[in-house]
Amino acid sequence: xxxxxxxxxxxxxxxxxxxxxxxxxxxxxxxxxxxxxxxxxxxxxxxxxxxxxxxxxxxxxxxxxxxxxxxxxxxxxxxxxxxxxxxxxxxxxxxxxxxxxxxxxxxxxxxxxxxxxxxxxxxxxxxxxxxxxxxxxxxxxxxxxxxxxxxxxxxxxxxxxxxxxxxxxxxxxxxxxxxxxxxxxxxxxxxxxxxxxxxxxxxxxxxxxxxxxxxxxxxxxxxxxxxxxxxxxxxxxxxxxxxxxxxxxxxxxxxxxxxxxxxxxxxxxxxxxxxxxxxxxxxxxxx
Length: 287
Description:
Blueprint: E1 2-6, H1 13-22, E2 26-30, H2 40-50, E3 54-57, H3 71-92, E4 95-101, H4 124-139, E5 143-148, E6 151-152, H5 159-167, E7 172-176, E8 180-181, E9 184-185, H6 186-196, E10 203-206, E11 213-214, H7 215-226, E12 231-235, H8 255-259, H9 268-279, H10 283-286
Parallel strand pairs: 1-2, 1-3, 3-4, 4-5, 5-10, 6-9, 7-12
Antiparallel strand pairs: 8-11
């Protein structure tokens, strides 16, 4: 397939470009320099020339806390930029795959969120991403909206790398234990997307590594799997106030994956193990 990936220099974008290329698709990875998604006419010009079968839209404004004071910028990229791309996708007959987030939920549910559950984003980031989802739903007749969570991979900054770096200079760490969700390894998400975009099973999907944990449990697993000795103490959200509210529970049910006959993503701990191996930080590597 001929595939355009926006946000190709991002944490997830780099992995999806690499993986799709390895699967022998014709991949055009576009960073901000090649495509300003907020420029409607440029979107039309660039994408008409490339004529992709699929557009995977992973470009986003993701500075969650900064978005609280840069609301206009967050909406311009996450809402308006997504609308521009969805319009062009429909114009050229391309499938449109939008990477969204668990932050579209308020986190007050007592069980995992299903794809058709009511959204109620609390942060500017979450609201701007939900606005993008609405544009995709109304403007693209061939769309996949893929909500994911707690993403980490070999490229860019992420929680796993942060924990490992902090452990180099500290004896102990405090990590929030009252926020629950599912860590997602970029490679596993990319493998799922590669299968999804070749189908016509359109709609909303929740895609994360399977299973649920708290940030505290995730941190403990990172150190256990990498053989790093450090004391990790649980703490509350209130002890670590942040400008943007985080969902307390953003665990997501993978009903659409199962209903459409796809294989679910592997358990989060297995994904973590594979990533640490890629990073060269696993216990096996350190022996």
